[in-house]
Amino acid sequence: RLSFCLLLSACSWGWAPGGAAKPKGQGYPHMNSIRIDGDITLGGLFPVHGRGAEGKACGELKKEKGIHRLEAMLFALDRINNDPDLLPNITLGARILDTCSRDTHALEQSLTFVQALIEKDSTEVRCVSGGPPIITKPERVVGVIGASGSSVSIMVANILRLFK
Fold first, then answer.
1. C-alpha–C-alpha distance, residues 33 and 25, integer Å
2. How far is CA 41 from CA 10, 118, 121, 154, in A?
3. What is the rounded CA–CA span in Å between residue 52 and residue 30?
4. 68-81 vs 2-12: helix axis angle to the nearest 10?
5. Can you give the residue ranges of the Receptor ligand binding region domain (predicted)?
6. For a FRET experiment, which of 29, 32, 66, 148 has its CA 20 to 30 Å from that of 130?
7. Is residue 32 over pLDDT 60?
8. Dist. CA 95–CA 41, nearest whole Å
9. In this structure, is residue 141 part of a structural domain?
10. Does 129 map to a domain?
């Protein structure tokens, strides 16, 4: 039930052919992403779209290798979170990103997972009112599922390993 609703919202969030998405809400400017709140957050990198043509990052939807894998993760999270014996009093959340079947795009997306670990220097930043900015830290991702290809997984693992 949850995974079906999330898939529907994923389609309305911009996972559409051509990748013509708009940023989703303040503090979450990443296109082609799903965020589920939880006590522990898992990352997901899936090739929901194929490679884009003519300078576009993303192309057509990939049903079998993209959407099906995304659905499998959502289904697993749903089953785990709804079983009171598996992880009592703990819910799993997720931050799932689209690699668009490109290794460079997957690498760029994987940096989203380490943003919570990077200190932001806000000493020189001031709001229009003169007060200090309120910087919302992204959730900390404890592990990443994906990517689909070995070469992409190795590159992503090498980047994520730097941040433990």
1. 12
2. 18, 17, 25, 21
3. 17
4. 140
5. 69-164
6. 29
7. yes
8. 7
9. yes
10. no
Count of structural domains within the chain? 1
Look at residue 81 and tell me if it is in a domain: yes
Instruction: Answer yes or no: is 148 within a domain.
Output: yes
Looking at residue 151, the DSSP 8-state letter turns out to be H
> Residue 85 is part of which domain span?
33-50+59-118+137-161
Which residues are CB-neighbours of 108 under 8 A, at least 6 positions away? none
pLDDT per residue as tens digits for the range 79-95: 999 999 999 999 999 99
pLDDT in tens, 53-83: 887 878 899 888 889 999 999 999 999 999 9
Tell me what percent of the residues of the chain surpass a pLDDT of 70. Answer: 71
Burial of 145 (0-12, 13-18, 19+ CB in 10 A): middle
Percent of the chain whose predicted confidence (pLDDT) is above 90: 29
Q: What's the pLDDT at 11? A: 42
The two tokens of residue 79 are 């089953």
